[in-house]
Design a protein that fits this description.
- This protein is mainly alpha-helical.
- It contains five helices and no strands.
- It has helices at residues 31-41, 43-46, 65-69, 72-75, 94-111.
- Helix 1 crosses helix 5.
- The chain is globular and about 50 Å long.
- The termini are far apart.
- 26% of the residues are buried.
Length: 117
């Protein structure tokens, strides 16, 4: 499902109504730079965190917190390369991942329903 890739698409993911990402520590000051990186490298496949709720590729607003906390394990020659996920080695730096984390968790936090007073 990647340009030039020969992997079969992953199984379809049903629409998710619960499980919005929570608990990833981040610096909110990095979210704006994370937005630019996310739009450049992630949004075309993963959608807007917490907004697009399903499809063949998981929305990063609905993954387990460990996936985002340990983002380096997935974007730098990670386990999904054989399934079509690009390897971002040389394109992203470790500091960029902190910005991505801030955008992803920050976006999930901003759309999370607030308790009624």
């Amino acid at each position: 499902f990647a340009l030039g890739g020969k992997a079969a698409p992953p199984p379809f993911v049903a629409v998710q109504l619960e499980g919005l990402l929570a608990g990833v520590k981040y610096d909110p000051n990095l979210a704006k730079e994370g937005l630019v990186l996310y739009v450049s490298y992630c949004a075309s496949c993963h959608g807007v965190p917490g907004v697009d709720r399903g499809g063949n590729i998981p929305n990063l607003g609905y993954v387990k917190p460990e996936f985002i906390s340990e983002l380096d394990k997935y974007v730098f020659n990670g386990p999904f390369v054989g399934n079509g996920m690009p390897d971002f080695t040389g394109r992203l730096k470790p500091a960029d991942l902190e910005k991505l984390k801030a955008f992803i968790q920050g976006t999930a936090d901003s759309i999370r329903p607030k308790p009624k007073k």
